[in-house]
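Is this the right way to post C-alpha coordinates for a design question? Let me know if I should format differently. Anyway, here goes:
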Protein backbone atom coordinates (compact mmCIF):
# COMPACT_ATOMS: atom_id res chain seq x y z
CA UNK A 1 0.00 0.00 0.00
CA UNK A 2 1.27 3.46 -0.88
CA UNK A 3 1.93 5.70 2.10
CA UNK A 4 1.60 8.90 0.07
CA UNK A 5 -1.21 11.20 1.12
CA UNK A 6 -3.46 12.63 -1.61
CA UNK A 7 -1.85 16.03 -1.28
CA UNK A 8 1.66 14.55 -1.46
CA UNK A 9 0.74 12.47 -4.49
CA UNK A 10 -0.73 15.46 -6.28
CA UNK A 11 2.36 17.51 -5.49
CA UNK A 12 4.44 14.73 -7.06
CA UNK A 13 2.19 14.84 -10.12
CA UNK A 14 2.70 18.58 -10.29
CA UNK A 15 6.48 18.12 -10.35
CA UNK A 16 6.21 15.36 -12.95
CA UNK A 17 4.11 17.53 -15.25
CA UNK A 18 6.61 20.38 -14.86
CA UNK A 19 9.39 17.98 -15.81
CA UNK A 20 7.42 16.94 -18.91
CA UNK A 21 7.09 20.55 -19.99
CA UNK A 22 10.79 21.09 -19.32
CA UNK A 23 11.60 18.17 -21.62
CA UNK A 24 9.29 19.50 -24.32
CA UNK A 25 10.88 22.94 -24.04
CA UNK A 26 14.35 21.38 -24.28
CA UNK A 27 13.35 19.44 -27.40
CA UNK A 28 11.99 22.63 -28.96
CA UNK A 29 15.28 24.46 -28.33
CA UNK A 30 17.34 21.58 -29.75
CA UNK A 31 15.11 21.65 -32.82
CA UNK A 32 15.50 25.42 -33.25
CA UNK A 33 19.28 25.37 -32.82
CA UNK A 34 19.53 22.45 -35.26
CA UNK A 35 17.49 24.37 -37.83
CA UNK A 36 19.70 27.44 -37.39
CA UNK A 37 22.84 25.37 -37.98
CA UNK A 38 21.23 23.63 -40.96
CA UNK A 39 20.11 26.81 -42.72
CA UNK A 40 23.41 28.56 -42.00
CA UNK A 41 25.31 25.66 -43.56
CA UNK A 42 23.09 25.45 -46.66
CA UNK A 43 22.64 29.14 -47.46
CA UNK A 44 24.80 32.23 -47.58
CA UNK A 45 23.61 35.09 -45.37
CA UNK A 46 22.05 38.10 -47.06
CA UNK A 47 24.22 40.47 -44.99
CA UNK A 48 27.75 39.36 -44.16
CA UNK A 49 28.59 42.37 -42.00
CA UNK A 50 27.73 40.52 -38.77
CA UNK A 51 31.34 39.41 -38.29
CA UNK A 52 32.69 42.96 -38.51
CA UNK A 53 33.88 44.16 -35.13
CA UNK A 54 35.57 47.59 -35.08
CA UNK A 55 37.49 48.59 -32.00
CA UNK A 56 35.53 50.00 -29.08
CA UNK A 57 35.56 53.77 -28.68
CA UNK A 58 36.55 53.42 -25.05
CA UNK A 59 40.05 52.24 -24.26
CA UNK A 60 38.74 50.73 -21.01
CA UNK A 61 36.78 48.05 -22.84
CA UNK A 62 38.10 44.51 -22.71
CA UNK A 63 39.53 43.13 -25.95
CA UNK A 64 41.56 40.07 -26.82
CA UNK A 65 44.41 40.62 -29.29
CA UNK A 66 45.44 36.95 -29.40
CA UNK A 67 44.36 34.79 -32.30
CA UNK A 68 41.93 32.06 -31.19
CA UNK A 69 42.94 28.41 -31.36
CA UNK A 70 39.76 27.45 -33.25
CA UNK A 71 39.04 30.51 -35.42
CA UNK A 72 36.49 28.74 -37.64
CA UNK A 73 34.21 27.93 -34.72
CA UNK A 74 34.58 31.48 -33.45
CA UNK A 75 33.76 32.89 -36.88
CA UNK A 76 30.70 30.63 -37.15
CA UNK A 77 29.36 31.87 -33.82
CA UNK A 78 30.09 35.51 -34.68
CA UNK A 79 28.42 35.10 -38.06
CA UNK A 80 25.24 33.87 -36.36
CA UNK A 81 24.92 37.16 -34.43
CA UNK A 82 22.35 39.01 -36.53
CA UNK A 83 19.88 41.89 -36.35
CA UNK A 84 19.36 43.21 -32.80
CA UNK A 85 21.86 40.66 -31.51
CA UNK A 86 24.62 42.78 -33.06
CA UNK A 87 23.62 45.68 -30.80
CA UNK A 88 23.37 43.57 -27.65
CA UNK A 89 26.79 41.99 -28.19
CA UNK A 90 28.35 45.36 -28.99
CA UNK A 91 26.89 46.88 -25.83
CA UNK A 92 28.14 43.95 -23.74
CA UNK A 93 31.59 44.41 -25.24
CA UNK A 94 31.92 48.20 -25.48
CA UNK A 95 29.08 49.74 -23.51
CA UNK A 96 26.65 52.34 -24.84
CA UNK A 97 28.71 54.17 -27.48
CA UNK A 98 26.08 55.83 -29.67
CA UNK A 99 22.72 57.45 -29.11
CA UNK A 100 20.71 54.78 -30.96
CA UNK A 101 22.15 52.00 -28.81
CA UNK A 102 20.13 53.29 -25.86
CA UNK A 103 17.05 51.78 -27.53
CA UNK A 104 18.35 48.41 -26.31
CA UNK A 105 17.84 47.83 -22.62
CA UNK A 106 20.77 46.82 -20.43
CA UNK A 107 19.75 43.59 -18.68
CA UNK A 108 20.71 41.15 -21.44
CA UNK A 109 24.07 42.85 -22.17
CA UNK A 110 24.85 42.85 -18.44
CA UNK A 111 24.13 39.13 -18.16
CA UNK A 112 26.19 38.43 -21.29
CA UNK A 113 29.11 40.46 -19.95
CA UNK A 114 29.07 38.70 -16.58
CA UNK A 115 28.86 35.21 -18.06
CA UNK A 116 31.58 35.90 -20.63
CA UNK A 117 33.97 37.13 -17.93
CA UNK A 118 33.29 34.26 -15.53
CA UNK A 119 31.88 30.89 -16.62
CA UNK A 120 32.86 31.13 -20.29
CA UNK A 121 36.07 33.13 -19.81
CA UNK A 122 38.32 30.05 -20.36
CA UNK A 123 36.93 29.81 -23.91
CA UNK A 124 38.26 33.23 -24.95
CA UNK A 125 41.69 31.92 -26.09
CA UNK A 126 39.94 29.10 -27.97
CA UNK A 127 37.23 30.87 -29.99
CA UNK A 128 37.80 34.59 -29.33
CA UNK A 129 36.14 37.11 -27.04
CA UNK A 130 33.30 38.21 -29.34
CA UNK A 131 32.39 34.58 -30.02
CA UNK A 132 32.32 33.99 -26.25
CA UNK A 133 29.97 36.95 -25.90
CA UNK A 134 27.70 35.42 -28.53
CA UNK A 135 27.85 31.99 -26.90
CA UNK A 136 26.95 33.57 -23.56
CA UNK A 137 23.94 35.24 -25.14
CA UNK A 138 22.71 31.99 -26.66
CA UNK A 139 23.17 30.14 -23.38
CA UNK A 140 21.34 32.76 -21.32
CA UNK A 141 18.33 32.98 -23.61
CA UNK A 142 17.86 29.25 -24.11
CA UNK A 143 18.10 28.52 -20.39
CA UNK A 144 15.73 31.42 -19.70
CA UNK A 145 13.25 29.93 -22.15
CA UNK A 146 13.30 26.55 -20.41
CA UNK A 147 12.45 28.23 -17.12
CA UNK A 148 9.81 30.35 -18.84
CA UNK A 149 8.06 27.24 -20.10
CA UNK A 150 7.87 25.80 -16.57
CA UNK A 151 6.48 29.07 -15.21
CA UNK A 152 3.99 29.21 -18.07
CA UNK A 153 2.67 25.76 -17.24
CA UNK A 154 2.36 26.44 -13.50
CA UNK A 155 0.64 29.75 -14.18
CA UNK A 156 -1.74 28.08 -16.63
CA UNK A 157 -2.74 25.46 -14.06
CA UNK A 158 -3.59 28.16 -11.54
CA UNK A 159 -5.67 30.20 -13.98
CA UNK A 160 -7.32 27.46 -16.05
CA UNK A 161 -7.73 24.91 -13.22
CA UNK A 162 -7.28 22.16 -15.79
CA UNK A 163 -4.01 20.26 -16.09
CA UNK A 164 -4.65 18.92 -19.60
CA UNK A 165 -5.57 22.30 -21.04
CA UNK A 166 -2.62 23.90 -19.28
CA UNK A 167 -0.25 21.27 -20.67
CA UNK A 168 -1.58 21.71 -24.19
CA UNK A 169 -1.22 25.49 -23.94
CA UNK A 170 2.33 25.07 -22.67
CA UNK A 171 3.14 22.84 -25.62
CA UNK A 172 1.98 25.62 -27.92
CA UNK A 173 4.17 28.09 -26.06
CA UNK A 174 7.21 25.83 -26.50
CA UNK A 175 6.62 25.75 -30.27
CA UNK A 176 5.25 29.25 -30.71
CA UNK A 177 5.58 31.09 -34.07
CA UNK A 178 8.26 33.41 -32.68
CA UNK A 179 10.41 30.54 -31.42
CA UNK A 180 13.49 31.65 -33.35
CA UNK A 181 13.78 34.77 -31.18
CA UNK A 182 13.75 32.75 -27.97
CA UNK A 183 16.87 30.91 -29.12
CA UNK A 184 18.65 33.96 -30.50
CA UNK A 185 20.33 36.93 -28.86
CA UNK A 186 17.10 38.83 -28.27
CA UNK A 187 15.25 39.80 -25.10
CA UNK A 188 12.14 37.66 -25.58
CA UNK A 189 13.36 34.85 -23.32
CA UNK A 190 14.38 37.06 -20.40
CA UNK A 191 11.22 39.14 -20.69
CA UNK A 192 9.05 36.01 -20.69
CA UNK A 193 10.92 34.48 -17.77
CA UNK A 194 10.58 37.52 -15.52
CA UNK A 195 7.04 38.39 -16.64
CA UNK A 196 5.58 34.89 -16.32
CA UNK A 197 7.60 34.22 -13.18
CA UNK A 198 6.42 37.49 -11.67
CA UNK A 199 2.77 36.74 -12.38
CA UNK A 200 3.11 33.22 -11.01
CA UNK A 201 4.61 34.45 -7.74
CA UNK A 202 2.02 37.22 -7.53
CA UNK A 203 -0.76 34.62 -7.74
CA UNK A 204 1.04 32.39 -5.26
CA UNK A 205 1.20 35.12 -2.63
CA UNK A 206 4.86 36.07 -3.16
CA UNK A 207 4.24 39.70 -4.02
CA UNK A 208 7.76 40.86 -3.11
CA UNK A 209 9.37 38.33 -5.45
CA UNK A 210 6.80 39.27 -8.08
CA UNK A 211 7.75 42.96 -7.89
CA UNK A 212 11.44 42.08 -8.22
CA UNK A 213 10.83 39.91 -11.28
CA UNK A 214 8.55 42.52 -12.86
CA UNK A 215 11.25 45.14 -12.33
CA UNK A 216 13.78 42.88 -14.06
CA UNK A 217 11.38 42.46 -16.97
CA UNK A 218 11.35 46.25 -17.27
CA UNK A 219 15.16 46.21 -17.38
CA UNK A 220 15.02 43.69 -20.23
CA UNK A 221 12.34 45.31 -22.43
CA UNK A 222 10.46 48.59 -22.34
CA UNK A 223 7.05 46.90 -22.25
CA UNK A 224 8.07 45.16 -19.03
CA UNK A 225 6.74 48.18 -17.16
CA UNK A 226 3.24 47.16 -18.25
CA UNK A 227 3.46 44.32 -15.74
CA UNK A 228 2.76 46.95 -13.10
CA UNK A 229 -0.79 46.68 -14.40
CA UNK A 230 -1.23 43.33 -12.65
CA UNK A 231 -0.22 44.93 -9.36
CA UNK A 232 -2.59 47.85 -9.96
CA UNK A 233 -5.47 45.57 -10.97
CA UNK A 234 -5.06 43.56 -7.79
CA UNK A 235 -4.71 46.64 -5.57
CA UNK A 236 -7.74 48.44 -7.01
CA UNK A 237 -10.00 45.43 -6.63
CA UNK A 238 -8.83 44.75 -3.10
CA UNK A 239 -9.42 48.40 -2.22
CA UNK A 240 -12.89 48.26 -3.77
CA UNK A 241 -13.79 45.16 -1.75
CA UNK A 242 -12.36 46.73 1.40
CA UNK A 243 -14.82 49.61 0.96
CA UNK A 244 -17.87 47.73 -0.35
CA UNK A 245 -17.62 44.41 1.51
CA UNK A 246 -15.67 45.23 4.66
CA UNK A 247 -16.57 48.95 5.04
CA UNK A 248 -12.94 49.75 5.89
CA UNK A 249 -11.81 52.89 4.10
CA UNK A 250 -8.48 52.93 5.91
CA UNK A 251 -7.66 49.47 4.61
CA UNK A 252 -8.56 50.55 1.09
CA UNK A 253 -6.23 53.56 1.29
CA UNK A 254 -3.36 51.44 2.59
CA UNK A 255 -3.96 48.89 -0.17
CA UNK A 256 -3.79 51.58 -2.85
CA UNK A 257 -0.63 53.10 -1.35
CA UNK A 258 1.00 49.67 -1.23
CA UNK A 259 0.05 49.03 -4.88
CA UNK A 260 1.40 52.42 -5.94
CA UNK A 261 4.73 51.86 -4.20
CA UNK A 262 5.12 48.44 -5.74
CA UNK A 263 4.32 49.85 -9.17
CA UNK A 264 6.98 52.53 -8.70
CA UNK A 265 9.50 49.81 -7.95
CA UNK A 266 8.62 48.13 -11.23
CA UNK A 267 9.11 51.41 -13.13
CA UNK A 268 12.40 52.15 -11.34
CA UNK A 269 14.78 50.30 -13.76
CA UNK A 270 13.14 51.91 -16.80
CA UNK A 271 13.34 55.42 -15.32
CA UNK A 272 16.89 54.84 -14.11
CA UNK A 273 18.02 53.79 -17.58
CA UNK A 274 16.43 56.90 -19.12
CA UNK A 275 18.25 59.03 -16.54
CA UNK A 276 21.48 57.21 -17.35
CA UNK A 277 21.05 58.08 -21.02
CA UNK A 278 20.34 61.71 -20.22
CA UNK A 279 23.44 61.88 -18.03
CA UNK A 280 25.68 60.47 -20.76
CA UNK A 281 24.23 62.27 -23.77
CA UNK A 282 22.97 65.62 -22.49
CA UNK A 283 24.72 66.66 -19.33
CA UNK A 284 27.57 69.17 -19.74
CA UNK A 285 26.49 70.35 -23.20
CA UNK A 286 25.41 73.86 -24.11
CA UNK A 287 21.93 74.33 -25.53
CA UNK A 288 23.06 74.49 -29.17
CA UNK A 289 24.91 71.16 -28.86
CA UNK A 290 22.03 69.29 -27.27
CA UNK A 291 19.84 66.85 -29.14
CA UNK A 292 16.17 67.89 -29.39
CA UNK A 293 14.98 65.40 -26.79
CA UNK A 294 17.51 66.73 -24.26
CA UNK A 295 15.76 70.12 -24.28
CA UNK A 296 12.24 68.73 -23.92
CA UNK A 297 10.30 69.48 -20.75
CA UNK A 298 10.31 65.76 -20.02
CA UNK A 299 13.41 64.36 -21.77
CA UNK A 300 12.15 60.94 -22.87
CA UNK A 301 15.05 59.27 -24.65
CA UNK A 302 13.36 55.98 -25.58
CA UNK A 303 10.42 57.63 -27.31
CA UNK A 304 12.75 59.88 -29.32
CA UNK A 305 14.94 56.98 -30.43
CA UNK A 306 12.00 54.88 -31.59
CA UNK A 307 10.58 57.73 -33.65
CA UNK A 308 13.83 59.19 -34.98
CA UNK A 309 15.79 56.05 -35.87
CA UNK A 310 13.06 53.48 -36.47
CA UNK A 311 10.11 55.62 -37.58
CA UNK A 312 7.80 54.28 -34.88
CA UNK A 313 4.67 56.34 -34.29
CA UNK A 314 0.89 56.36 -34.40
CA UNK A 315 -0.26 55.35 -37.92
CA UNK A 316 3.24 55.96 -39.33
CA UNK A 317 3.43 52.41 -40.64
CA UNK A 318 0.14 52.59 -42.52
CA UNK A 319 1.66 52.71 -45.99
CA UNK A 320 0.88 50.67 -49.09
CA UNK A 321 4.46 49.39 -49.31
CA UNK A 322 4.10 47.88 -45.83
CA UNK A 323 1.19 45.64 -46.85
CA UNK A 324 3.37 42.48 -46.90
CA UNK A 325 4.38 43.17 -43.31
CA UNK A 326 0.73 43.52 -42.30
CA UNK A 327 0.07 40.16 -43.94
CA UNK A 328 3.01 38.64 -42.08
CA UNK A 329 1.56 39.83 -38.78
CA UNK A 330 -2.05 39.00 -39.63
CA UNK A 331 -2.11 35.46 -38.12
CA UNK A 332 -0.96 36.52 -34.64
CA UNK A 333 -3.13 39.64 -34.68
CA UNK A 334 -6.14 37.60 -35.82
CA UNK A 335 -5.55 35.08 -33.05
CA UNK A 336 -5.24 37.88 -30.51
CA UNK A 337 -8.45 39.49 -31.75
CA UNK A 338 -10.35 36.19 -31.61
CA UNK A 339 -9.13 35.42 -28.10
CA UNK A 340 -10.15 38.88 -26.88
CA UNK A 341 -13.51 38.80 -28.69
CA UNK A 342 -14.31 35.34 -27.31
CA UNK A 343 -13.67 36.51 -23.77
CA UNK A 344 -15.69 39.71 -24.24
CA UNK A 345 -18.58 37.75 -25.73
CA UNK A 346 -18.47 35.22 -22.90
CA UNK A 347 -18.25 37.75 -20.07
CA UNK A 348 -19.37 41.19 -21.33
CA UNK A 349 -20.44 42.38 -17.87
CA UNK A 350 -17.02 41.50 -16.44
CA UNK A 351 -15.13 43.30 -19.20
CA UNK A 352 -17.28 46.43 -19.19
CA UNK A 353 -17.03 46.78 -15.43
CA UNK A 354 -13.34 45.72 -15.38
CA UNK A 355 -14.34 42.93 -13.02
CA UNK A 356 -16.08 45.07 -10.42
CA UNK A 357 -19.49 43.57 -11.20
CA UNK A 358 -18.32 40.03 -10.60
CA UNK A 359 -20.04 38.19 -7.79
CA UNK A 360 -18.24 38.09 -4.47
CA UNK A 361 -18.01 34.29 -4.69
CA UNK A 362 -16.35 34.45 -8.09
CA UNK A 363 -13.92 37.08 -6.88
CA UNK A 364 -12.90 34.77 -4.08
CA UNK A 365 -12.00 32.22 -6.74
CA UNK A 366 -9.88 34.69 -8.70
CA UNK A 367 -6.25 33.99 -7.93
CA UNK A 368 -5.21 37.37 -9.32
CA UNK A 369 -7.28 39.10 -6.65
CA UNK A 370 -6.83 36.87 -3.59
CA UNK A 371 -3.73 34.72 -4.09
CA UNK A 372 -3.34 33.96 -0.40
CA UNK A 373 -6.87 32.56 -0.24
CA UNK A 374 -6.39 29.98 -2.97
CA UNK A 375 -2.65 29.37 -2.87
CA UNK A 376 -2.71 26.11 -0.96
CA UNK A 377 -5.47 24.50 -2.93
CA UNK A 378 -4.26 25.62 -6.34
CA UNK A 379 -0.61 24.88 -5.78
CA UNK A 380 -0.97 21.56 -3.98
CA UNK A 381 -3.97 20.25 -5.90
CA UNK A 382 -3.76 20.25 -9.70
CA UNK A 383 -7.34 20.60 -10.83
CA UNK A 384 -7.31 17.83 -13.38
CA UNK A 385 -9.27 14.62 -13.72
CA UNK A 386 -6.22 12.60 -14.64
CA UNK A 387 -4.49 13.71 -11.44
CA UNK A 388 -7.40 12.60 -9.29
CA UNK A 389 -7.60 9.22 -11.00
CA UNK A 390 -3.90 8.60 -10.36
CA UNK A 391 -4.37 9.32 -6.67
CA UNK A 392 -7.36 6.99 -6.45
CA UNK A 393 -5.30 4.21 -7.99
CA UNK A 394 -2.50 4.72 -5.50
CA UNK A 395 -4.72 5.12 -2.44
CA UNK A 396 -7.23 2.26 -1.89
CA UNK A 397 -8.80 4.09 1.04
CA UNK A 398 -9.85 6.96 -1.15
CA UNK A 399 -10.99 4.54 -3.82
CA UNK A 400 -13.17 2.73 -1.31
CA UNK A 401 -14.59 6.01 -0.04
CA UNK A 402 -15.56 7.01 -3.52
CA UNK A 403 -17.16 3.66 -4.19
CA UNK A 404 -19.19 3.68 -0.99
CA UNK A 405 -20.08 7.35 -1.28
CA UNK A 406 -19.69 7.85 2.46
CA UNK A 407 -17.44 10.88 2.22
CA UNK A 408 -16.56 13.55 -0.29
CA UNK A 409 -14.08 12.18 -2.80
CA UNK A 410 -11.02 13.83 -4.13
CA UNK A 411 -12.48 14.13 -7.59
CA UNK A 412 -15.39 16.16 -6.26
CA UNK A 413 -13.08 18.35 -4.24
CA UNK A 414 -11.15 19.11 -7.40
CA UNK A 415 -14.23 20.79 -8.79
CA UNK A 416 -14.48 23.22 -5.89
CA UNK A 417 -12.37 25.87 -4.22
CA UNK A 418 -13.03 27.36 -0.79
CA UNK A 419 -13.94 31.00 -0.55
CA UNK A 420 -12.64 33.33 2.12
CA UNK A 421 -15.64 32.40 4.28
CA UNK A 422 -14.89 28.65 3.89
CA UNK A 423 -17.94 28.35 1.66
CA UNK A 424 -17.41 25.78 -1.07
CA UNK A 425 -18.25 27.08 -4.54
CA UNK A 426 -17.72 25.52 -7.97
CA UNK A 427 -14.47 26.23 -9.77
CA UNK A 428 -14.97 27.73 -13.21
CA UNK A 429 -12.67 25.64 -15.37
CA UNK A 430 -12.61 27.56 -18.64
CA UNK A 431 -11.16 30.53 -20.47
CA UNK A 432 -14.01 32.79 -19.28
CA UNK A 433 -13.08 33.05 -15.60
CA UNK A 434 -12.52 36.46 -14.06
CA UNK A 435 -8.87 35.55 -13.41
CA UNK A 436 -8.24 35.79 -17.16
CA UNK A 437 -9.48 39.40 -17.35
CA UNK A 438 -6.19 41.23 -16.56
CA UNK A 439 -4.37 39.04 -19.08
CA UNK A 440 -6.94 39.87 -21.76
CA UNK A 441 -6.68 43.60 -21.00
CA UNK A 442 -2.90 43.36 -21.22
CA UNK A 443 -3.12 41.52 -24.54
CA UNK A 444 -5.61 44.06 -25.93
CA UNK A 445 -3.29 46.97 -25.13
CA UNK A 446 -0.25 45.19 -26.57
CA UNK A 447 -2.13 44.23 -29.75
CA UNK A 448 -3.39 47.76 -30.32
CA UNK A 449 0.12 49.13 -29.82
CA UNK A 450 1.61 46.61 -32.25
CA UNK A 451 -1.02 47.36 -34.91
CA UNK A 452 -1.30 51.14 -34.70
CA UNK A 453 2.11 52.28 -33.45
CA UNK A 454 4.91 49.77 -34.00
CA UNK A 455 6.38 48.10 -37.05
CA UNK A 456 3.49 45.70 -37.37
CA UNK A 457 5.57 42.67 -38.37
CA UNK A 458 7.13 42.76 -34.89
CA UNK A 459 3.73 41.72 -33.50
CA UNK A 460 4.57 38.02 -33.89
CA UNK A 461 7.33 38.18 -31.29
CA UNK A 462 5.91 41.16 -29.38
CA UNK A 463 2.77 39.20 -28.46
CA UNK A 464 4.39 35.76 -28.28
CA UNK A 465 4.67 35.69 -24.48
CA UNK A 466 1.03 36.62 -23.87
CA UNK A 467 -0.71 33.67 -22.13
CA UNK A 468 -4.28 34.24 -23.45
CA UNK A 469 -3.13 33.42 -26.98
CA UNK A 470 -2.18 29.91 -25.92
CA UNK A 471 -5.03 29.42 -23.45
CA UNK A 472 -7.59 30.30 -26.09
CA UNK A 473 -5.83 28.18 -28.70
CA UNK A 474 -5.73 25.24 -26.30
CA UNK A 475 -9.49 25.35 -25.75
CA UNK A 476 -10.02 25.86 -29.47
CA UNK A 477 -7.94 22.79 -30.27
CA UNK A 478 -9.88 20.68 -27.79
CA UNK A 479 -13.21 21.52 -29.42
CA UNK A 480 -12.18 21.69 -33.07
CA UNK A 481 -9.86 19.17 -34.70
CA UNK A 482 -9.42 21.25 -37.84
CA UNK A 483 -8.52 24.26 -35.72
CA UNK A 484 -5.79 22.22 -34.04
CA UNK A 485 -4.33 21.38 -37.43
CA UNK A 486 -4.38 25.03 -38.52
CA UNK A 487 -2.75 26.26 -35.31
CA UNK A 488 0.04 23.68 -35.43
CA UNK A 489 0.57 24.31 -39.16
CA UNK A 490 0.86 28.04 -38.48
CA UNK A 491 3.44 27.50 -35.75
CA UNK A 492 5.44 25.01 -37.80
CA UNK A 493 5.46 27.27 -40.86
CA UNK A 494 6.70 30.29 -38.91
CA UNK A 495 9.33 28.21 -37.08
CA UNK A 496 10.70 26.94 -40.40
CA UNK A 497 10.40 30.29 -42.15
CA UNK A 498 11.80 32.22 -39.21
CA UNK A 499 14.79 29.95 -38.69
CA UNK A 500 15.55 30.12 -42.42
CA UNK A 501 15.23 33.87 -42.93
CA UNK A 502 16.27 35.29 -39.57
CA UNK A 503 19.41 33.19 -39.13
CA UNK A 504 20.65 34.28 -42.57
CA UNK A 505 20.06 37.97 -41.92
CA UNK A 506 16.91 38.19 -44.06
CA UNK A 507 13.96 40.24 -42.73
CA UNK A 508 11.50 38.30 -40.56
CA UNK A 509 9.19 40.07 -38.11
Amino acid sequence: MSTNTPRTQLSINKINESHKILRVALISRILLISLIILWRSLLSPYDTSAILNPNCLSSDSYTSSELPIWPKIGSAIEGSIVWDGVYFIRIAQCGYEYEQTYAFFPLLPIFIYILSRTVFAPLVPIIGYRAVLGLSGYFINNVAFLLSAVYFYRLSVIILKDGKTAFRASMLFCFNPASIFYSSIYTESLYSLFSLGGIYHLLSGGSTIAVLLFALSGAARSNGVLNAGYICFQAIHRAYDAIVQKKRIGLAVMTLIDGALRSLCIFAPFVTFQAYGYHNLCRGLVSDEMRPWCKARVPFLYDFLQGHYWGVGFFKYFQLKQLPNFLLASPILSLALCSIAHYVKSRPEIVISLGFRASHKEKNLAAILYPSGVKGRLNDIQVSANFSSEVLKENPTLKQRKKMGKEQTLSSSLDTIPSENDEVVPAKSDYASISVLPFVLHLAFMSATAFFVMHVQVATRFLSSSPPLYWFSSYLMASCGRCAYVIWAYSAAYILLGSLLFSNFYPFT
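Format looks fine. Someone answered above. Worth noting: Residues 372-394, 396-429 have pLDDT under 50 and may be disordered. The CA atoms of residues 181 and 188 lie 7 Å apart.
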